[in-house]
Specification:
With about 210 residues, this protein is of the alpha/beta class. It has one domain: Metallo-beta-lactamase, Chain A. About 25% of the residues lie in helices and about 30% in strands. The protein contains 7 helices and 14 strands. The termini are far apart.
């Protein structure tokens, strides 16, 4: 059985996740830690639970989701999994930092592109990948059908959806992707979003004002 630990980090209250199992193997998803204090929280959790980080995953490459990416790559020395269509977003990181009033160096990391239709293996458990652009060009969702949960990034929130007024955002594209790729899943599927509280597919189908 998987356990999910969420950390709320940085100026955007972004959700960074550690997904782990009884074998103490773990995935680090959207490392948004931006200072020493936030980084220490992750490090302490990993150490105290004796976890081995086996994968670094990005749902997308907006600045609030990658502030700790260089630290993660340097620490665990494993490739970063992301969709190729967000490479240009990651490459704009330094410019994005300037817009928020701080300096951040370009990320220098080994990148592994993942695509819709592929599956990632976690000790025999499969995670399907859905490409759901609209918030960013390369936004992806990681879905475990067996335990009925997904890591949705900024695609779908409790009662809301990701912003579409950012670079290469597209409202119609995002709505269509949610309806055709996520809303066809089991209503009990838990949604762990990039901001805010977890929700379920069934709840959002009934109550999300952007999708009714």
């Amino acid at each position: 059985m998987f356990q999910i630990q969420a950390f709320r980090f940085n100026f955007a209250s972004e959700n960074t996740y550690i997904l782990f199992n009884e074998n103490k193997n773990a995935w680090l998803i959207d490392p948004g830690n931006m200072n020493e204090q936030e980084t220490k929280l992750i490090e302490n959790f990993i150490t105290e639970n004796e976890l081995k980080i086996q994968k670094i995953l990005l749902t997308h490459a907006h600045i609030d989701h990658v502030l700790g990416l260089q630290w993660a790559f340097d620490t665990f020395k494993i490739p970063v999994n992301m969709h190729k269509d967000d490479q240009e977003v990651l490459d704009m990181l330094q410019i994005s930092g300037m817009r928020f009033g701080f300096q951040i160096d370009p990320v220098k990391a080994e990148i592994n592109y993942v695509n819709e239709g592929e599956e990632l293996d976690f000790d025999g458990e499969k995670f399907k990948i859905y490409h759901v652009p609209g918030h960013s060009p390369g936004s992806i969702v990681y879905h475990n059908e067996n335990q009925k949960f997904m890591i949705s990034g900024d695609v779908l929130f409790e009662g809301s959806i990701g912003r579409t007024d950012l670079y290469k955002g597209n409202y119609e594209q995002l709505i269509d992707g949610i309806k055709t790729k996520l809303f066809v899943l089991d209503d009990e599927t838990q949604v762990f979003s990039g901001h805010g509280n977890p929700t379920t597919i069934g709840f959002e189908k009934q109550h999300n004002p952007f999708l009714n």
